[in-house]
């Protein structure tokens, strides 16, 4: 039981890369889904008998990859322009009206 109680704050830690460019409602969704991503990666690690007591690989690898994908989907144009002033034409999230270049770049970053 404690394992699942402990998983929620770790799941919410996954919003790190996109915290300045997504809406608060989106950050909550990201954290909720990240908790399930972490559970999935923990089950996968258990299946392969990967011994990681602190779940560092699952948290930073699995939830970090989810966070990058999430940012590529939900980054708001207004927030991106505010965070990076004077740099017009910055990429923002696919589901927020961008052409998907940021999302594609995030996928390449995960695979690299």
The main β sheet shows up as: none
The portion of residues assigned to helices is 55-70%
Helix and strand content put the structural class at: mainly alpha
Extract low-pLDDT stretches: none
What is the chain-wise order of helices and strands? HHHHH
Radius of gyration from the CA trace?
Answer: 15 Å
- Principal-axes geometry comes out as elongated
Distance, first to last CA: 36 Å
Give the tally of β-strands: 0
Mean pLDDT over the residues:
87
- The number of distinct helices, counting runs of at least 4 residues, comes to 5
Query: Beta-strand percentage?
Result: under 5%
Oligomer: single chain
Provide structural commentary.
With 112 residues, the chain is an all-alpha fold. Helices cover 64% and strands 0% of the residues. The protein has five helices and no strands. It starts with a helix and ends with a helix.
Set out the fold topology.
Elements: H1 2-12, H2 24-47, H3 56-74, H4 77-83, H5 101-111
Helix pairs in contact: 1-2, 2-3, 3-5
How would you summarize this macromolecular structure in one to three sentences?
The chain has 112 residues and is mainly alpha-helical. The chain has helices at 2-12, 24-47, 56-74, 77-83, 101-111.
Main traits of this protein?
112 residues; mainly alpha; 5 helices
């Amino acid at each position: 039981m404690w394992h699942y109680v402990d998983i929620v704050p770790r799941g919410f830690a996954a919003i790190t890369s996109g915290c300045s460019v997504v809406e608060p409602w989106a950050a909550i969704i990201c954290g909720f889904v990240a908790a399930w991503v972490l559970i999935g990666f923990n089950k996968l690690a258990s299946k392969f008998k990967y011994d990681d007591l602190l779940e560092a690989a699952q948290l930073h690898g699995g939830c970090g990859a989810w966070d990058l994908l999430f940012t590529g989907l939900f980054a708001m144009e207004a927030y991106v322009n505010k965070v990076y002033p004077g740099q017009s034409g910055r990429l923002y999230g696919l589901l927020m009206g961008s052409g998907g270049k940021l999302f594609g770049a995030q996928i390449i970053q995960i695979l690299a």
